Amino acid sequence: MKKQGCEIEAIGINYTIYTQKRETPFNIFRRNQHKKCLSGVQELHEVKELEKGNDPKEIRHVLKDVNCRAKPGEILAIVGPSGAGKSSFLEILAGKIEPESGSIYVNQKPVDKARFKKISGYVTQKDTLFPLLTVQETLSFSAKLRLKLPAKELSSRVKCLIQELGLDHVAGSRIGDDRIRGISGGERRRVSIGVELIHDPGVLILDEPTSGLDSTSALQIIDMLKTMAVTHGRTIILSIHQPCFRTVKLFNSILLLAYGTILHHGTIEQLSLRLMLMGLQLPLHVNILEFAIESIDTIQKQSHTLLPQSTLMIKNSCKFTLQQLFQESKLIDEEPISMSIHNDFPSGFANSRLQEIVILTIRFWKIIYRTKELFGCKTLQMLVSGIVLGSVFYNLEDNLVGAQARVGLFAFILTYLLSSTTEALPIFLQEREILMKETSCGSYRVSSYAIANSLVYLPFLLILALLFSTPLYWMVGLNKQFMAFMHFLLLIWLILYTANSVVVCCSALVPNFIIGNSLVCAMMGSCALFSGYFVSKNEIPNYWIVMHYVSLFKYPFEGFLINEFSGSGKCLQCMFGMCLASGEQVLKEEGYGGEESRRKNLLIMVCFILLYRFISYVILRIRCSQGGFKKILISR
What we know:
Keywords: ATP-binding, Membrane, Nucleotide-binding, Transmembrane, Transmembrane helix, Transport
Domain ABC transporter: 45-284
Number of helices: 25
Membrane topology: Multi-pass membrane protein
Structural class: alpha/beta
Radius of gyration: 31 Å
Low-confidence stretches: 31-53, 307-315, 317-346, 627-636
Helix content: 40-55%
GO molecular function, one term: ATP hydrolysis activity
Pfam family, one: ABC2_membrane
């Protein structure tokens, strides 16, 4: 059976970005570091303004009428100086951004983006991986999310891919990052490539796969890609900045870009002949691509004056070599696999929603368990703080002084628990990057991520609540009824989960940790101020009263007071054997309800949790939705 590869052809690609416009820090729809082009009348108006010279820095044409073709079993290398438009062109080919104009064809048919994502892989310049997962776990989770295969076949495919990537010796090692010791940079890059190869794509697009690597590691990466292109019939398109001589020899064709325009598209031999016809002599010990990049200005000037006969000579000079290479790639591939994008690759998700939730929950739990700052330190912190607070407020008496101390304790608990959760913010921000990458290629649904993220923290936060509540409650001498203790534990659990939900919501909204930390602190500060403890409800100005009812502190604070004083039978002030002030009387005087308010406060706290979780889901859905993203940008 003959292999049908994927031939990629781009025709007339134009792309424009708009600069010198201030970005708002809460631009929740931003997926890339630059803005997409506007359309229709807006775009024509801007171009006319540029031509008039009113604002020469307003518009920059990143790509101008770019054409190229990449064949199966070959490597097309896109080269050029910084700012040439290499990354933008790759993102357009991968379907990440929309060109201003132009067309992309796969096997001479217009590209179907949804299906193309299923049979292609896109490796970004930055390694977006979970540092606490091992190499094998990273590839296994990717396989489970993207492939609908039995467990044995999944395991076999992961094992074969690890061998093909040359990662056998580090399969059980953690990925690591700048803070966590792990595998080397070259090995990490191979894992990033492996994540995009797990579904055996016909097209692999890589943005500077050798960036940040030494020459040996860079050569090993390109050599591995060359082997994959030949043995699997893959179409590989990559950008590269300064390849060494041995790396250049592995490329089948070159696309040389400068200032968004094509200076050369063909083989290295054709580029060498082109430079010779221009009178440019290659210096000793300099490879042809480095010399071409250094001579860009000269090439650009002389390209317009090159005779048609010379151009024909360049095209025909290496025709036999190209045919020979293509024939070799056909002969080497003896067991072909069909790559038809229109029939053999179904659209949709590989797993049901429930399966996605289970896989993502297991992955989340592994990360939480291995995050020392979140699991180990937080667990110890809650236990120690519960003991310390219990010793400070040890064995409070049942009188007015003791009641005031209890109220102060409850206010401190709320402030402490709701304000000490920002340590999870960097983890959520890191997860968001991976979420956007994985959902963009159709690995799973955003809703599955949101549900799994919600479920995985429930047992962890329950453990924290138990470690904090148990020593504190009994050392202080709070309401000695067992059901009162269980209600107190439930309140602590919901407080921790509310704080977690707020942090998740903020991490979906903000671009970085600094802004996220500021936002969380501002929210918690305002909620504490209007809780009713520092300023009573009756003293809050009418124009601020709404803040009292939306305060995250109000309802758990009332819950603590009701749990402690309602139905406890405590007499806070006694004279001549008569009770002058009971717990229930104090609650009524302060405007708090009795037993009937217990369930109401719990229900409102649950509603707050669901609200923040839903808001975070909506924001993430907008971020990950290509259609919604483009629609909002165009409307701007």
